[in-house]
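Hey, I'm writing a tutorial for new members on how sequence and structure tokens pair up, and I'd like a real worked example in the thread rather than a made-up one. If someone can provide the structure for the chain below, I'll link this post from the tutorial.
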Amino acid sequence: MSELLEAGAGTDPAEVLKRRAGRYAWPIRDSLQVANDLANLAKNTSPFTDLADDLERAVLGGKVVVSDLGELSFAHEGGSARPLPVHLTASVVKSLASLVFYFRHMAKPGDFLIIDEPELNLHPDNQRKIARVLAKAVNRGFKIMMSTHSDYVLRELNHLVMLSDPKESVSRVIDELGYDRASILPPEKLGVYLFKEQTAQLVPVSVDGFQVETIEHEIAALNADAQAIYAARFG
């Protein structure tokens, strides 16, 4: 009863009860609603279609398309076969198809995205590429909360921050390494937190980048083990 009172005038009581009694949490129900309305949503064009193009070109190697019946499919670049339903495609397509659709048809300026471990199912080179696309989205006004355990993602974000240094030599290396200047990330646009011992510890970020203690420690330990193994075998 309290929910009905709080809903206010003009709210359909049946809808309130339906949401309360639904078998899925709100985010899942909203996702299912989007999935059931893909054909209509695909008629919209967002101002961020270039971000969808970046993901398709750099990471997926093909196009995410929606049929007239509202089925999400994937057409491989240069392929002659008919598009495959997304559920029959590689895991990387399954992981990113919804993000591509969102950027192309639903994204609005100032949107807030929560992305859990974007590196899942991605080869290291693609982990670096998606970090660049997300950095570009931040520079375009998106607010992104992202969790990651990937050293590749963290190191690429470090690169993007360090490349914001205005030195002429840094500007030259941006071009030499083929970075998109739209992905260069000023340190003030990045907040980093390390979740450790049930607390969120703020990690300092400057134009020199940042370090995540637990990951840096494990990389150092891995390198030390490798040196000991090589020395035992070839020393």
